[in-house]
Design brief:
The chain is built from ten helices and twelve strands. It is of the alpha/beta class and 320 residues long. It has an eight-stranded mixed sheet, with helices on both faces. Strands 6-11 form a two-stranded antiparallel sheet. α5 crosses α6 and α9 packs across α10. The radius of gyration is 23 Å and the shape is globular. 29% of the residues are buried.
Length: 320
């Protein structure tokens, strides 16, 4: 009688169908590994490397609904980070959904997507569907937006249910203070002469809108949100925030370290600061002279945003 190792004997006892199933699963796993499909994402080895640059430029067409929003990030940015931090079939969340750029990108990439937004005008634009300039909508994947405050998120989602979070938050009451033409003079050689200096208007008058809060109250509410997001995110999930620092000269504050302050409250909620990426927007913003001829103060044009990457520990990990 032939002698078999225990694992070989186990295979002999399996039905022909079961052996075929196991063989096919093993083949699929080997093919997936060879193609570069990882536990985290579906990127190939080359894509994994090229996506890893810490300074990025995101271009692409601006659809009509993103123009009406006034501060929506490009679809290419959303696709970039969704491809890195999720896989097909995962659930992507944007707690400040706006007109739904994150949700549109997730749907095009075959992820389920959920968003929260207070402004009904933005929701109406989102409900018109994905613009044909962006791609084809996948109706097999969930793409829903809820009209409520981001702080109500735990009423909508259960714990450990979200694979990836991508958002760009409101900036306290900044938009209530910006003057339409805040620059003294445009730089005459600027190649982007057709770019307006008029910034986005306040998104709503709602008391629930974090864009209407003082900076201190804003950070306090953001702490509550980061708490909620940490509870609904799965272990190992990433949480990416697109944030631009700004100035508040009316209150004698030359520089508001928004990305740093949000990082502080996020880490207090248990999120791990994982990465910091620079979004170089200098080719998309007009250079202006910030100050008069006799000014003794010099300000740089803020031509970049920070993309702050947080991560939730998995069980047994000790990242701090």
């Amino acid at each position: 009688m032939a002698q078999y190792k225990p694992e070989e004997l186990q295979v002999l006892l399996l039905s022909d169908y079961e052996q075929l199933r196991l063989f096919n699963e093993e083949t699929v796993e080997k093919k997936a590994a060879k193609a570069g499909i990882h536990d985290l994402n579906n990127l190939t080895g080359s894509e994994w490397t090229l996506h890893g640059k810490s300074v990025q430029i995101f271009n692409g067409g601006i659809t009509e609904k993103r123009k009406k929003h006034g501060a929506a990030f490009p679809l290419s940015l959303a696709k970039h980070f969704i491809e890195i931090y999720s896989k097909e079939g995962d659930t992507v969340l944007d707690p400040f959904a706006g007109v739904g750029t994150t949700l549109d990108a997730a749907n095009i990439l075959k992820r389920h997507s959920l968003g929260i937004e207070l402004n009904p005008d933005f929701i109406n634009l989102f409900n018109k569907g994905i613009d044909v300039k962006d791609g084809i909508q996948n109706f097999d994947y969930q793409r829903n937006i809820f009209q409520c405050s981001a702080l109500e998120i735990e009423r909508l989602l259960s714990g450990n249910s979200v694979d990836f979070i991508l958002t760009s938050p409101p900036y306290a009451n900044l938009l209530n203070k910006i003057r339409d033409n805040f620059a003294d003079k445009d730089y005459k050689n600027n190649p982007y002469k057709n770019q307006s200096r008029k910034l986005a208007k306040p998104y709503s008058v709602s008391e629930e809108d974090m864009g209407n809060l003082s900076y201190e109250d804003y950070l306090s509410e953001m702490k509550k949100l980061f708490d909620s997001l940490h509870r609904i995110a799965k272990q190992g999930a990433y949480n990416v925030w697109v944030v631009r620092d700004y100035r508040d000269l009316d209150n004698s504050l030359p520089y508001i370290n928004l990305h740093g302050d949000l990082t502080k409250v996020a880490t207090e909620s248990g999120w791990i600061l994982w990465d910091l990426i620079i979004w170089d927007q200098s080719n998309q913003r007009k250079l202006v002279r910030l100050g008069g001829n006799k000014s003794r103060r010099y300000y740089f044009n803020i031509g970049h945003s920070f993309i702050v990457v947080f991560r939730k520990n998995m069980s047994g990990e000790k990242f701090k």
